[in-house]
Request: fold
Amino acid sequence: MRLYTRTGDEGKTSVVGGRLTKDDTRVIAYGTTDEVNCFVGQAITQLDPELFEDIINELVKIQHELFDCGGDLAMLKATEARPFKAKEEMVLFLEERIDEYIKEAPELERFILPGGSPAAATIHVCRTVTRRAERYVSRLQRESETNPVVLKYLNRLSDYFFAIARVVNHRLGVKDVEYERSAIVFREGKRKE
Reply:
């Protein structure tokens, strides 16, 4: 198998159902989703398998789901033969996990600075790149047809990354650093969006 095809040399790429310019919103959306997946892979390599087995297993699951989301975003139109893969259950799973991790981490009142341990810092990168992907998918939904579950999934996923970054620091005994000019913005362990 040859890795290069030369078909993109003119600035276009293949998607399911046709070809688009490489700077098309659809291409940027699934490309940014792929970026998230890469940072998730990096985060996994920074987690101790004994201390973080649960989180590692979830992150591997999320990597597969990000591939599903990317595949959905790369389709110009779903068909019976090729239906969308991202499902509402994926969103519900993230919500359940977020609720559990919020209980595990220390109470939060103020914004925190991204960082702490190397793994938590990488997970914060996952969070912010997910937010960027979410913005592109939001734009894509206004421009053309796509799976609406993907936008919900990315929205929850960024919250999930915030929650596990805090848990990672907590389990490692690393304190989150509060943004020193932050007012009290979180009440009863819930994030305000």
